[in-house]
Amino acid sequence: MPARPPNDRKTKALRKRGCLNAQPAAVTDEVFAAHEFFDARDVVQVKYEMLRRVRVDGTPVSHVAQAFGLSRVSFYNAKEAFESGGLAALVPEKPGPRSAHKLTVEVMTFVREQLVEDSKLTSQDLAALIETRFRISVHPRSIERALTRRKKKRR
Fold first, then answer.
1. pLDDT-based confidence at 41, cuts 50/70/90?
2. Is the dihedral of CA 45, 50, 54, 58 positive or negative?
């Protein structure tokens, strides 16, 4: 099978959705080399086929993990995710915090109280007040986003 160009449409789409396999060359399983349908760049397809190979074909986990360029731990994580959430659970999660974890209800209540007292406070001012009061460092842009989310929820 000829190598695909690194910036074709599918590669861009996989990258955008977080499904681009960082090491497609590590996938040495014969089906990925023999059939164009199988694409080692698609980490969801790689994980699914790896699970299928063990469950349906009965291939040992250690052999499958190596042939698919993943660790045994990755296999078991994918197996657990698939069993609990189906194919969609094989899509990698976005890295980083899932929410404004420093801006708790208590902190945001404080922010709103400060804005009631002085509506001209900037996000930089609020960040300094939060640091003084709660001893946590919050980026001013995070405060702006949290306030914007609150406004959107009210509508």
1. very high
2. positive
d(CA 116, CA 54): 61
Q: For residue 155, what are the contacts with CB-CB under 8 A and spacing of at least 6?
A: none
Helix, strand, coil proportions of the chain in percent (round to 5)? 60, 0, 40
Residue 113 in contact with residue 129, Cβ under 8 Å?
A: no
The dihedral sign for the CA sequence 56, 4, 22, 41: negative
pTM of the model: 0.62
> What's the DSSP call for residue 18?
T
So where are the chain's domains?
Answer: 9-90, 105-150
